[in-house]
Amino acid sequence: MRALSDLLAESKIFANREVLSPHFTPKKLLYREKEIDLIQRALVPSLKGERGRNLFIYGPTGTGKTSCVKYVIEEIKNIPNTRARISFINCRIYNSRFRALNKIISDHLPTYAKRGYGAVDLYEKLTSWIEEDSKILVVILDEIDQVKDLDDLIYTLTRINSDIRAGGVTMIGISNKVSFKEDLDPRSLSTLYETELSFARYYATELYAIMKDRSTEGFKKNVIEDETLHLIAAAAAKDGGDARFCLKILTRAGELADEREADKITLKDAQDASKMAENEIVYDVVSALPEHQKLVLYAIVTLTKSGGMQRRIVDGSDIYLFSGQVYGRYKSLTEGIHKEAKSERWYRKYLSELQMQGLIESYESGKGIRGHTKLIKLHSDPKKMGEVLEKDLFGPGKEEKETEQEAAA
C-alpha cells in the first residue's frame, strides 16, 4: 500500500484532470459548429427580449448535446443588457414540476424559494417576476424525459406566456430519447410550438480528434501515444460514438498509469480502463431507464442467461432471442411485482429505445425461420447487467417517497 504522502505527490501523468471530465466545457467544441449555430439562432429572439420558439434537442448519450447548450450559455453571459434570464435544470435531480419550479425560483429569487411555498405560489411569484420588467426566462431541461409529471411541467411553463402581458418563457429540452414526446398529452403538445435539433453519433476520426485535443491539455507532455488514442476512439465508435465513454477511458487509463507510478499510459492501461469505463457507463444508462424499460431489459437478461436460439455470427456464437419470447417473459415479470404490462406497441417502442441506448441489438429474422419476427441480442454481460437491474427493480427502499410539500403541491 502506498503512503499518503506518495498519493499527494505531483502526478507524473495528469496536468489538468478537469479538462478530461465529461462535464468540462472546452473553449471550442469540435465537430459541433452547425449544432451550436442552430442553438444560438433559436435563442436570438429571447436575447432581444422577444418570445422565441421552444427547442428540443435529441441524440444518443455522449454526442455533445448538453455541452453545446452550456457552451452557448457561457456566451450569453458575456452579452450586456440582455433581458434573458437562464435556468439550467438537471431533470434527474429536479424530476417533478414542483422541484423544477423551485429550482427556477432558487436561481433568481433565492430568498423566496426557502419559504416553503407550494407550486401555485411559485407559479404566481414567477409570473409576476417575469412581467415586472418584461424578462424572457430561458428554461433548459436537461434529460427532460426524467420528469415524472412532464405534462404538468410543460403545461405550466407554456401557460405563463398566456397569463402575462409582457415578457415570456422559452424552453430548451434535451433528451436521449427521440420518441419521448409520444408520451405527452395532446394538450401539452399543442402548446409547445417547438423546433427540433438532432445530434448524430461521432465517427472514430472525430473521437480521436476530440481525445487528442483534451489529452494535450489534460495530460503532461508525451504521456500518451497516438496509437493509444486511436484504440480508444475506435472502441468508442464501435460502441456507439460516445465521447463521454472516451473521456472516462482516458481518465481511468491515466489513473492506472499513476497507480503503477509510471510516466506513460500504455495500450494495456487503455484496454483495462475500457472495461472499467464500460461497466460504469452501462450502470449509469440502466439506472436512468424508466421502470418498464428496465423490466423488458431484465427479461432479455434472464432469457439470455438461460439460453435462447443459437446462431453462428461471423467469428463466434451469440445468443439470440425471439421478440415474442421476450414479451412473454416481460409480462410474467410485471405480474410478479403486481404491475400491469404495457401493450405490444409500447413494448416495440421500448425495444427501440434500448437499442438506441446501445444496450441491445435487434434484427429482422431471415431465411430458415418460419414467419416474420425480430431477433434480439443483449449487448452487455448478462451477469453484470442482471445485478444492476435486480438492485434497481427489486432492491430495498425502491419506493420513492415524496416530501409533504410536494404532495401538497
What does this structure look like?
The chain contains 17 helices and 9 strands. By secondary structure, the chain is of the alpha/beta class. It folds into 3 domains: about 35-200, P-loop containing nucleotide triphosphate hydrolases (Rossmann fold); about 200-285, Helicase, Ruva Protein, domain 3, CATH 1.10.8; about 290-395, Winged helix-like DNA-binding domain superfamily/Winged helix DNA-binding domain (Arc Repressor Mutant, subunit A), CATH 1.10.10.10. The strands form 2 sheets. A 5-stranded parallel β-sheet has the order 2-3-4-1-5, sandwiched between helices. Strands 6-7-9-8 form a 4-stranded antiparallel β-sheet.
Please provide a brief summary of the model.
This protein has 17 helices and 9 strands. With 409 residues, it is an alpha/beta fold. Strand 3, helix 7 and strand 4 form a beta-alpha-beta unit.
